[in-house]
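Async update (no meeting this week)

Hi team, since we skipped the sync, here's where things stand on the single-chain job. The sequence we agreed to prioritize is pasted below, unchanged from the tracker. I ran it this morning and attached the output directly underneath so nobody has to dig for it. Comments welcome in thread, and please keep replies under the output.
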Amino acid sequence: MTEVNKAQPAGEGPPPPRGWTRFVTARPRLSLLVALVLTALAVLAGSGVADHLGSGGWEDPAAESTYATKALERQFPDSQPNLVLLVDSGGASVDDPAVAAEGRALAGRLAKEKGVTGVGSYWQRHSPALRAEDGHEALIAARITGDDNATGRTLDRVAPRLRGVHGPVRVRVGGIVAVRHEMQTTIKEDLTRAEMIALPITLVLLVMVFGSAVAALLPLGIGIVAILGTNAVLRGLTAFTDVSVFALNLTTALGLGLAIDYALFIVRRHREELATGADPLTAVGTTLRTAGRTVLFSALTVAVSLAAMMVFPQYFLRSFAYAGIAVVLLAAAAALILLPAALILLGHRVNSLDLRRLFRRGRAPRPSGAEGTAWAGAASLVMRRAPLFALGTTALLVLLGLPFLGVKFGTADDRQLPAGAESHVVQQHLRQDFPGSPGGGLEVLAEGRATKAQYAAYKQRVAALPEVVRVDGPLVRGDSAYFTVQPRGEFVDGPAQRLVGELRALDAPFDTKVTGTAAVLVDSKHAIAEHLPWAGAFIAVVTLLLVFLLTGSVVIPLQAVVLNALSLTAMFGAVVWVFQDGHFSSALGFTSPGSIETTLPVLMFCVAFGLSMDYGVFLLSRIKEEYDRTGDHTEAVRHGLQRTGGLITAAAVILAVVMVAIGTSRVTNTKMLGLGIALAVLMDAMVVRSLLVPAIMRLTGRATWWAPAPLRRFHQRFGLSEGEKPAAAEVKEREPAGV
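Output:
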């Protein structure tokens, strides 16, 4: 953490609080009271937020497949079943009279349910696709109407009446609506468990870092306030737009992680000021002018990375931007408003209940100034062997990222759920036991008046495509019709995706639109590829600008962007090696679908990049302050790592604990998000910040601080700094030769 070490001139006290510092410290009791009231209101406003969140959001709302899906839902509800009943007759045949009678009765009962339409069964249609190849299972398919919340309520009402044993058959409930509803329920349960795991472990770690139990409780309180406030924000957003239930996981992770990060640096700085003899009010004022500025700046850099997800049309990604920006800003606001008020009221009692004394009995007290000596020694070693550490660390990170070159993108399906989940079991039976995997085909919507001969000719041309197994239809209503096309192999693999392009390129005497799982995947990949350059450019440009405002250098921002991106290679390599290729799947308790959901790498990049910038800002600001004070580049890097290395590592370990707790989820995407980001955070703090950054900065030397003269003047006027800015003449004197 950066701090100002300059002594006050003789005879002068600390500067009186001004501006924001004066506002924050003027009425601490009132600030805490208002915060308590707002937190209570947030609890009420955000209660039950998970029940209003969606479990989809991976599709592009402007895509052809989305248009076709909605049109088919309106005109041909039978074509888009989202509820499937798997009827198991045991050892009997599904054509047995008693089984057939019970199957028809179940279909009739389902058809009478409110909110259910398009009910069809094997015993009504006698379609081979609805009968298992062994003849002991058959399907009843239907559509539950409404949005995610409405379909979930209908499923909760209908499923208990149909699930279980009915005479000679046993019924299990599946289909897309069951998968999404079970995923939503599982995420809520897992999130509660993750919080129960993370909170006590985090408290223990904070006590180890601070020693004082009182100081340790402050960051935890800030995190809880940020989480509760973000839940209220998300609940308000659900009245205007779709929000994914997966965003709750990010709310918990960032709410605890970043709030603890920010509070760690502020409380640490405040306690250092108290140790120099400052009174609590003066200590808080100094802390806000120094550490507080860095916290605010850091929050902006994280928010920028998360805001980039607003560029994408999928509400799954946009939801993480909503949740992430809200929780980052609330965490920073709580750390910069509530925490100073609490520190003023606590005074020197912030150091109360020092539990580390129990372990220090009989030991000699730690010498003054010994803090961070190990980090200083490590920094000196790295800089003495800078080329070796730079090349070795870079090679290691690149090597760890190589598995990502074999990434295969897919969709989120039932295999996100545990192997024993009912909807997952049903879908697994459909894939393995039924001909052509019913429900996994492509649908072609035909719009425009056509004759029977034209429909027949088009059907014949579709059937002649090499990737097509079977074509069913058309079903005609008015001027519209639809065909069902069954591809060879898995319904989202390469051949199925190529078939989507072939169908869309096929000439027809009417307008055609293609949908289905493979078509949604193709359109989602296209939307990601189309918007990814804009998101990347947004992150890069704004990050470059913010880091320039912090450092006044044009070299350091480029280093920060490149090194932060490099720190994520291990995460991406591990995601493919573990979750796509299935290594350790048994130990981690998930089913590998053989692919990575299309939006997950984008999400993980934005979150992990933002967190890397968070730690980078704390380190760079301390190095910049020391360089401004001494003009010694090498000493500034060494001193910066000495002062922040331990604290950044502690913050990273605590955040990793929170992310691992999130990674205990039974939903694969959430597990991937939690464990992947935990790995990225640890690699950034322990490898990139500790080894690569000092090595690179030693190699670039004083040229690290170079900037053209116009930009130097711009930074002197508008730049951000924790300490006093050096005079212009002093800056000119320290410029690298040749600048």
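Quick observations from my side:
The chain is about 65% helix and 10% strand.
Residues 226 and 330 are 5 Å apart (CA to CA).
Reply here if anything looks off.
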